[in-house]
Amino acid sequence: MQNGHRPMVVVVDDDEAVRESLRFLLDIAGYEVATFDSARDYLDHVDGQRTICLLVDQHMPNTTGLELLAVLRQRGAHVPAALITGSPSPDMLRKATALGAARVLEKPLADDALLRFVACAAAGGYA
Fold first, then answer.
1. Residue-range definition of the domain harbouring residue 82
2. Contact assessment for residue 46 and residue 111, using Cβ atoms and an 8 Å cutoff
3. I need a labelling partner for 101 at 20 to 30 A (CA). Which of 4, 86, 91, 93 fits?
4. Given a cut of 60, is residue 82 above it in pLDDT?
5. CATH code of the domain in which 98 resides
């Protein structure tokens, strides 16, 4: 815990059901969760000081997950990120790696893989 707070995981996904199911899963696992329905909403409210990792949907309107990662890297933010997608292509995987994504998680999400990513980020495994 940092300053009495639980570690913060940020979820950026345009699908409310996905955001809420991830919030529920991560809350039960002991994490504080902030959710955003778009890359713009996240960028307008970002406070990376307590964020241990990002879970970012690739296919969102207006700004994709890869585009969001590119903006964050341009700003010098290096928070561990997992890109979530239902259709990972070799090109997408290359781009995600180039942008510093720690993982690409395929939908439907496996709870254990997601929780392993978050636990590793919380432990500083992607620093």
1. 8-122
2. no
3. 4
4. yes
5. 3.40.50.2300
